[in-house]
Write a structure and sequence with these properties.
It contains 5 helices and 7 strands, in the order E-H-H-E-H-E-H-E-E-E-E-H. By secondary structure, it is of the alpha/beta class. It has a single domain (2-123), classed as Glutaredoxin, CATH 3.40.30. A 5-stranded mixed beta sheet has the order 3-2-1-6-7, covered by helices on one side. Strands 4-5 form a two-stranded antiparallel sheet. Strand 6 and strand 7 (99-105) form a beta hairpin. The longest helix is centred in the N-terminal third of the chain and has 13 residues, at 10-22. The model has no long low-confidence stretch (mean pLDDT 94).
């Protein structure tokens, strides 16, 4: 699962999601069943974003518009000063059989380093 502050935002759309879409086959070859992209936007926005990207099979986009998952995962990110309100932190989690095997949170939510596709592939 890869989480990002919002659909259509520059870092999420230009730097984060494309690596997962380009490398989906590599993830599946390493035994992953699916890739879940979680964004703190409403369902309609996330659906429009996914539809525009035409993701490969087994890449699913999910909305966390009310930040319920972000709160439960203790990954809230306060972007109120930027006019974006509460969002989810940028991170990637590898989950196998219900157990979190790897959890990488970006130290700077405006950058993609430890939660990018290449870094997660290297960790698998």
């Amino acid at each position: 699962m890869v989480a990002m502050p919002g659909a259509f935002t520059p870092t999420c759309a230009d730097d984060h999601v494309p690596g997962y879409l380009r490398n989906a086959d590599r993830f599946f070859a390493k035994g992953l069943d699916e890739i879940v992209v979680l964004a703190t936007s409403d369902f309609f926005v996330v659906k429009a974003w996914a539809d525009g990207l035409n993701p490969p099979e087994h890449v699913h986009f999910m909305a966390d518009g009310s930040q319920l998952f972000a709160k439960a995962a203790d990954q809230l990110l306060d972007l109120t000063e930027l006019g974006l309100g509460m969002r989810t932190q940028r991170y990637a989690a590898v989950v196998r059989s219900g157990k979190v095997m790897n959890f990488a949170v970006e130290p700077d939510a405006t950058a993609v380093t430890v939660s990018g596709a290449d870094a997660v592939l290297d960790a698998l």
